[in-house]
Every structure is written in structure tokens, then in C-alpha cells.
Structure of Antibiotic biosynthesis monooxygenase:
Amino acid sequence: MYIVHSTFVVPNEKADEVISIYHSRSRLVDKADGFQRFLLLQNEKKPGEITVHMEWESKEQFMTWIQSEDYKRIHELEKKYPDQDLASIIPSIHKFKVVAT
């Protein structure tokens, strides 16, 4: 299993807005080969810190996803988000190989 975290920080007052965007996400990734699970995590002590958690069967399947047209389409939409403060946020990406369960 391969896990990817994409963590970003928004102003606390915009956290609910960002969360609502993810509630209506396209779900294109859900159909990707090897995709297993999506979770949106909010830090309890820092509500503006949000993490996208994705689980994949393998690193190779994740890499195939990020090279896909659907991935590019999703991330192009993010750049066109009307709130430029949110559109300009660059997440911190962390990738993990699961070594025990």
C-alpha cells in the first residue's frame, strides 16, 4: 500500500469553505486504477490545517494517476478558483510506503 498526504494551511475563517469544496469534489480519482481511499483531515488544534489523505495499492498506480488527463483536469480547475488566496496555496506533499499493518 502507498499513502499520499497533501497538507495545506488556509486562514481559519476559510476552512469551512475549503471543506465544502471537497464535499462536492469530482470523484474522478475514485475511478483510478489502484485507488483505495480518500479522506479529508482537519487538524483539531489548527482548523486551517487540512490534509488530503489518499491510499493506493501501489506507488506505480499513484504515479500513473498523477500523469493522467483526469488529474491534470482537476488541478487546472483549482488554479481557476475564484478566491485567489486559496488558489495560490501550495501544499506540502508527503508520500509513505506502508511497511506493516
Remarks:
- The CA atoms of residues 38 and 54 lie 5 Å apart.
- The mean pLDDT is 91.
